[in-house]
C-alpha cells in the first residue's frame, strides 16, 4: 500500500546495501568487542559505553558478567545468565524487552535469567535494506526474522557443542530453559557456551514452530522500568565523560540563516565559559557547566545575514498552498474517472481540510556528546594508534548518526562508535542527524569531549515539523448514498526531498500521501493527487507520518459523506469495507466494545474512525460532551489488529500512548511561522495534554494469527477524526482544521 | 557559601547563587536522575522535594536552598512512601520513555505523603504540573491509587470509609 514510504528511512544511504550484505555474510563473526575497547579506553563504567538497564536482582534485565559471545545477539556467562543484545533504540516503545523476548524464545532460554544490552552501531542488527534504525513501527514487523535466525543459530551451536561432548546425535537433543538435554544428560547453556562459540555457524538454522512459542505472546515485566523509577537510567543528556565541556548553540531564528558577525566579549566574561566558537549550526558557547553555557549564550551579540525567508509566515505559506491547489497535482492513484462522475452528479460535496505544522516536543530535549580523538593509543597493541570518534546520544538510527559523524569528523565508519543511550522520547525527531553533526563538529574544533544541550526553546524552534497541509475534497454520492466518486488533492511539503530524495518516484513523496491514496473503502471512481510546495520550514517524520494528518482529513470527509447520505457513520464505513474483512473486523470490534448500537449516556456523543498505518489496523470510538463550547473527552475505545502481539501489554500501552499523542495534536498542536521563524517556544505556547485532559482508554486486540504489524504509531491516526466526528455529533460543527484550541465550539 | 542538605548529606557550595538547583544536582553532584525538560517550571521533569514540598529544580536558584533539605529521585526510594510509589510504578507498568517519570514519582510521593487516599480530583491537581509526552497519565493515576492502597491495610479502608461518611453527611 505505502510502497517506498512504508519504511521511509530505508535506502537513505544508497551505497549501504553492499556493505550491509558484506556484514551479513560475516553475520556472526563481526564487531567483536568494540564497545568493551571503548569502555576500557575511556575508563567508563559499564553504563558509560553500553546502556545496561536494570538494577541488581533476578531478571532485572541486567547483562551477564564476563559472558562468552556466541554471536552478535547472544552472550552467555558461566553461571548461565544470558545477555540478549538488541540493536533497536529504546524510546519507550518497549523494544528492548520485545526483541529480547524473541531472542529468548527462539534460543530456548529461561526468561528469569536473561538480561539485555544495547548494541553498538553494527550492521549485524540492520533492517532489510541495510541500516540500523528504529522507526516506521518496524522493529518487530521487519526484524523478527533476523533476530529469530540469530537466536536459532546460537541454539544450534549450543546443541552441537553438547552433542559433541556427549558423542550423541545433535538432532536428538532437546533444549529447555537454558539447558540442552539428551536422555538423562543435561548441560547448561553456560557450561556449553565456550565450546558452542567454536562450533561452525549453521547456514539455515531451523526456526521454532509458532505453536511452540512460550515467551512470545506473554507479557513479562519490561526490563527498562526499574532503572526509570529510581533515576539510574542513563539518557543521552546524562552522559558524562571525564574532561567533558558543555555547550549551548545560538541558532538562527530564521531556518538556514547565516551568521554575519558576532561579539563574544560579554559571553566570555561569564565565569565558566571557556570558548565561543562558530559552527555550521550557529555560535557555540562552551563552558565547564550547563548554567555558564546558558548564561554565556544570553550574552552573545549576533548579527544574522538577511535571508530570503525573512518575511515568510504561516499565512504566506498557506497562500502558496491555496494557489497550488487550483491546478491539478501529480496523480498518486486513480481508479475510473472521478472528475467526470462528479461533473455529472447531482449529489456532490466539497470540503477543504487543513492541518498545521507540529513539533515533536520529546520530553528530553535534543542533545549529543561527542569526542573526536586523533592518535589514541589502542589497547593491547603497544605501538598502535588510531583516530576515533565516539558519539553518545539517544538516536533512533545509529547508522544515520554514524554517517553524520563520518561526515563531520572526516574519519571512516570503522573509526566511528555510536553509543545509543535511552531516548527520552523519539517520535521521529531522533531519526535526524543534526544534533550529532554539530556535536562532532564542535568536539573536533575543541579537541575535547563536548556535550551540546538544547534548551526547550531550541528544540521547539529547530525541529523538523510535521508538514502543514491543505486539502481539497470533492465527492459524488449515488442514489443509495454511497460514494460513486472521490477526488482528493493534497498540497503539502515533502519530507523525503530532504531525507531520501532517491525514494521520490515520479515526483511523488509517498509520505505525503500515505493514509490518503489507498483507503479500505471501495469507491468506483477515485483520484488522489499531490501538489508539493517546499518551503524553508524543515519538515520531518512525526509519529505515524502522513497517516497522522491524512486520517484526520479522509476520515472526517467519510463522516461528511455518511451524514449527507443520512447513514450511521459506523454502518456506512462497514458497508464500504465489504471487501476488506480484516479492516472491517477491527471497525466492528471497536463499535461493539463502545456499545455503538446503544445510545451514549445523556449529554455525551460518539464519533468513530479507522486508519491503517505501518501494517497496523486501528479503529477508535471517542465519546465527548461539549457544554458552552467546552470540550470534555470522556472515553476512547480502541480496537487494534497489529498481527502477532509479541508482548500484548506493551501493545496496549503503545495504543494508549498513541491515543494521547493524537489527542495532544488534535486539541493543542500548532506551530506557526512569523518573519521566517517559529513563534512557539515552550509548553506555555505549545501546550500538550496534562493528566486532567486524559479520557478513560480501553484497548482491545485482535488479529493475533497474522504476522507482526506496526505497533508504536498506528494508534495515533484515528484519534483526531474520531474525536472531531464526535464533536460533530455533539454540536453539528464539522471540524476541518486543527487544532481544536483555534475553533470556537460554541458556534455550529 | 550556601549550606543545605541533599539526600541527607550536608554540603556547602560557593557556585554562582543564581545557578538553578537542577544544574547543581546534575553538573556538580552528578545526580542525573532529576531531568531537564523546559527550564521554566512548565513540565515538572525536574521535580524534587525541598523540605517535603515538590519544587521545580530548573527554576529554583541555589541561593534559595540555604538551610533546606533536598530529596531527589535517587533517594526517594528510601522513604516509605517513595518506596511504595516506585513499587506501584513497576506494578502498573507506568513507564515508557521514562524521562518524565522521576518528576512524576516525586510529585506523587509528595501528594501521598500528605494525603493517604487522594481522590481523582486531588490527583489531577497534584499531578497537573507533570507533563508526559508518552501519555502514561492513566497509569500514573492507577499507580498512585495502587500506592495509596498499599498503605497500612488497616488505615486505607478506614480513610475511605471516613471520606464516604463525610461525603454523604
Major sheet of chain A, described briefly? 7 strands, mixed
Helical residues, percent of chain A? 25-40%
Mean pLDDT of chain B: 91
As an assembly, this protein is: heterodimer
State the share of residues found in helices of chain B, binned by percent. Answer: 40-55%
Describe the secondary-structure layout.
The complex is a heterodimer of chains A (748) and B (169).
Chain A: H1 16-25, H2 34-42, H3 46-49, E1 68-71, E2 74-76, E3 82-86, H4 95-107, E4 114-118, H5 139-166, E5 174-176, E6 179-182, E7 185-188, H6 189-197, E8 245-250, E9 259-263, H7 265-269, E10 273-279, E11 282-287, H8 290-298, E12 301-304, H9 314-325, E13 330-335, H10 338-344, E14 348-355, E15 367-377, E16 385-393, H11 398-409, E17 416-420, H12 434-446, E18 450-453, H13 456-461, E19 469-477, E20 483-492, H14 496-499, H15 510-513, E21 525-532, H16 545-564, H17 569-576, H18 581-593, E22 605-613, E23 616-627, E24 630-641, H19 648-667, E25 673-674, E26 677-678, E27 696-702, H20 719-731
Helix pairs in contact in A: 4-5, 5-6, 11-12, 16-20, 19-20
Chain B: E1 2-6, E2 9-13, H1 21-28, E3 47-50, E4 53-56, E5 69-71, H2 73-76, H3 80-91, H4 101-114, H5 120-127, H6 137-149, H7 155-168
Structure description:
The complex is a heterodimer of chains A (748) and B (169). Chain A is an alpha+beta fold and 748 residues long. Among the domains of chain A are: 3-30 and 52-228, Aldehyde oxidase/xanthine dehydrogenase, molybdopterin binding domain (Aldehyde Oxidoreductase, domain 4), CATH 3.30.365; 328-359 and 464-742, Aldehyde Oxidoreductase, domain 4, CATH 3.30.365.10. The longest helix of chain A has 28 residues, at 139-166. With 169 residues, chain B is of the alpha+beta class. Chain B folds into two domains: 2-75, Ubiquitin-like (UB roll) (Roll), CATH 3.10.20; 77-151, [2Fe-2S]-binding domain (DNA polymerase, domain 1, Orthogonal Bundle). In chain B, 43% of the residues lie in helices and 12% in strands. Chain B has helices at 21-28, 73-76, 80-91, 101-114, 120-127, 137-149, 155-168; strands spanning 2-6, 9-13, 47-50, 53-56, 69-71. Chain B has a five-stranded mixed sheet with strand order 2-1-5-3-4. Mean pLDDT of chain B is 91; it is low at 152-169.
Amino acid at each position: 500500500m505505502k510502497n517506498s514510504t512504508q519504511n521511509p528511512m530505508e535506502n537513505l544511504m544508497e551505497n549501504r546495501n553492499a556493505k550491509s550484505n558484506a556484514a551479513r555474510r560475516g553475520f556472526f563473526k563481526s564487531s567483536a568487542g568494540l564497545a568493551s575497547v571503548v569502555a576500557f579506553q575511556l575508563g567508563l563504567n559499564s553504563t558509560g559505553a553500553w546502556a545496561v538497564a536494570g538494577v541488581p536482582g533476578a531478571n532485572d534485565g541486567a547483562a551477564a558478567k564476563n559472558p562468552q559471545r556466541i554471536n552478535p545477539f547472544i552472550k552467555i556467562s558461566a553461571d548461565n545468565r544470558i545477555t540478549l543484545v538488541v540493536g533497536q533504540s529504546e524510546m519507550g516503545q518497549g523494544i528492548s524487552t520485545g526483541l529480547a523476548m524473541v531472542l529468548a524464545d527462539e534460543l530456548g532460554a529461561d526468561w528469569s535469567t536473561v538480561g539485555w544490552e544495547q548494541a553498538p552501531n553494527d550492521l549485524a542488527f540492520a533492517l532489510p535494506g541495510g541500516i540500523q534504525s528504529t522507526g516506521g513501527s518496524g522493529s518487530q514487523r521487519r526484524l523478527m526474522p533476523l533476530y529469530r535466525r540469530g537466536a536459532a543459530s546460537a541454539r544450534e551451536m549450543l546443541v552441537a557443542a553438547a552433542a559433541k561432548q556427549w558423542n550423541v546425535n545433535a538432532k536428538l537433543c532437546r533444549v529447555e530453559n537454558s539447558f540442552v538435554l539428551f536422555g538423562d544428560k543435561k548441560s547448561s547453556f553456560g557450561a556449553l557456551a565456550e565450546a558452542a562459540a567454536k562450533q561452525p555457524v549453521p547456514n539455515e538454522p531451523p526456526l521454532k514452530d509458532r505453536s511452540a512459542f512460550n515467551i512470545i505472546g506473554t507479557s513479562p515485566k519490561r526490563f527498562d522500568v526499574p532503572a526509570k523509577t529510581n533515576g539510574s537510567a542513563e539518557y543521552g543528556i546524562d552522559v558524562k565523560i571525564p574532561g567533558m565541556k558543555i555547550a549551548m548553540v545560538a541558532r538562527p531564528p530564521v531556518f538556514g540563516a547565516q551568521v554575519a558577525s558576532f561579539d563574544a566579549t560579554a559571553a566570555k566574561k561569564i565565569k565558566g565559559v571557556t570558548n565561543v566558537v562558530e559552527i555550521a549550526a550557529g555560535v557555540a558557547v562552551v563552558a565547564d557547566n550547563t548554567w555558564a553555557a546558558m548564561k554565556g549564550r544570553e550574552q552573545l551579540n549576533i548579527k544574522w545575514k538577511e535571508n530570503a525567508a525573512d518575511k515568510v509566515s504561516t499565512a504566506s505559506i498557506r497562500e502558496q498552498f491555496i494557489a497550488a491547489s487550483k491546478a491539478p497535482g501529480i496523480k498518486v492513484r486513480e481508479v475510473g474517472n472521478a472528475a467526470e462522475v462528479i461533473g455529472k452528479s447531482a449529489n456532490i460535496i466539497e470540503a477543504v481540510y487543513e492541518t498545521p505544522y507540529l513539533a515533536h516536543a520529546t520530553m528530553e530535549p535534543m542533545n549529543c556528546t561527542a569526542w573526536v580523538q586523533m592518535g589514541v593509543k589502542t589497547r593491547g597493541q603497544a605501538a598502535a594508534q588510531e583516530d576515533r570518534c565516539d558519539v553518545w546520544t539517544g538516536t533512533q538510527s545509529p547508522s544515520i548518526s554514524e554517517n553524520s559523524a563520518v561526515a563531520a569528523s572526516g574519519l571512516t565508519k570503522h573509526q566511528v562508535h555510536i553509543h545509543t543511550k535511552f531516548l527520552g522520547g523519539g517520535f521521529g525527531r531522533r531519526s535526524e542527524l543534526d544534533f550529532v553533526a554539530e556535536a562532532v563538529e564542535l568536539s573536533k574544533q575543541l579537541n575535547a569531549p563536548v556535550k551540546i544541550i538544547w534548551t526547550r526553546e531550541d528544540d521547539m524552534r529547530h525541529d523538523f515539523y510535521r508538514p502543514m497541509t491543505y486539502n481539497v475534497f470533492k465527492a459524488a454520492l449515488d442514489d443509495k448514498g454511497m460514494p460513486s466518486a472521490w477526488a482528493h488533492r493534497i498540497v503539502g511539503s515533502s519530507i523525503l526531498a530532504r531525507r531520501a530524495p532517491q525514494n521520490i518516484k515520479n515526483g511523488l513523496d509517498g509520505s505525503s500521501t500515505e493514509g490518503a491514496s489507498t483507503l479500505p473503502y471501495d469507491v468506483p471512481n477515485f483520484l488522489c493527487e499531490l501538489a508539493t510546495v517546499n518551503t524553508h520550514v524543515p519538515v520531518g517524520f512525526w509519529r505515524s507520518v502522513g497517516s497522522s494528518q491524512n486520517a484526520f482529513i479522509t476520515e472526517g470527509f467519510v463522516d461528511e459523506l455518511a451524514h449527507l447520505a443520512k447513514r450511521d457513520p459506523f454502518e456506512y464505513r462497514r458497508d464500504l469495507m465489504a471487501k476488506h474483512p480484516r479492516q472491517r473486523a477491527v471497525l466492528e470490534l471497536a463499535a461493539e466494545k463502545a456499545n455503538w448500537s446503544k445510545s451514549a449516556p445523556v449529554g455525551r456523543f460518539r464519533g468513530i474512525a479507522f486508519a491503517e498505518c505501518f501494517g497496523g489496523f486501528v479503529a477508535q470510538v471517542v465519546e465527548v460532551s461539549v457544554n458552552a463550547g467546552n470540550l470534555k473527552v470522556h472515553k476512547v475505545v480502541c480496537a487494534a489488529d497489529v498481527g502477532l502481539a509479541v508482548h500484548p501489554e506493551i501493545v496496549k500501552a503503545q495504543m494508549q500512548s498513541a491515543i494521547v499523542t493524537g489527542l495532544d495534536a488534535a486539541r493543542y498542536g500548532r506551530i506557526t511561522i512569523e518573519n521566517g521563524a517559529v513563534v512557539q517556544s515552550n509548553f506555555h505556547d505549545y501546550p500538550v495534554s496534562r493528566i486532567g485532559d486524559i479520557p478513560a482508554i480501553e484497548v482491545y486486540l485482535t488479529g493475533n494469527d497474522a504476522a507482526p504489524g506496526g505497533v508504536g504509531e498506528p494508534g495515533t491516526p484515528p484519534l483526531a477524526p474520531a474525536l472531531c466526528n464526535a464533536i460533530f455529533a455533539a454540536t453539528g460543527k464539522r471540524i476541518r482544521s486543527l487544532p481544536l484550541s483555534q475553533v470556537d465550539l460554541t458556534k455550529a | 557559601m550556601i549550606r543545605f542538605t541533599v539526600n541527607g548529606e550536608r554540603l556547602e557550595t560557593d557556585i554562582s547563587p543564581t545557578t538553578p538547583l537542577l544544574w547543581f544536582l546534575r553538573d556538580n553532584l552528578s545526580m542525573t536522575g532529576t531531568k531537564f525538560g523546559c527550564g521554566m517550571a512548565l513540565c515538572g521533569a525536574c521535580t524534587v522535594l525541598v523540605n517535603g514540598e515538590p519544587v521545580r529544580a530548573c527554576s529554583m536558584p541555589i541561593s534559595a536552598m540555604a538551610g533546606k533539605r533536598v530529596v531527589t529521585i535517587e533517594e526517594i526510594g528510601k522513604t516509605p512512601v517513595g518506596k511504595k510509589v516506585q513499587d506501584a510504578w513497576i506494578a502498573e507498568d507506568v513507564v515508557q520513555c521514562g524521562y518524565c517519570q522521576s518528576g512524576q514519582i516525586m510529585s506523587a510521593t509528595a501528594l501521598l505523603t500528605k494525603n493517604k487516599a487522594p481522590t481523582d480530583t486531588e490527583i489531577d491537581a497534584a499531578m497537573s504540573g507533570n507533563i508526559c509526552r508518552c501519555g502514561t497519565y492513566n497509569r500514573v493515576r492507577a499507580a498512585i491509587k495502587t500506592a495509596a492502597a498499599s498503605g497500612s491495610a488497616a488505615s486505607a479502608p478506614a480513610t475511605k470509609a471516613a471520606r464516604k461518611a463525610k461525603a454523604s453527611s
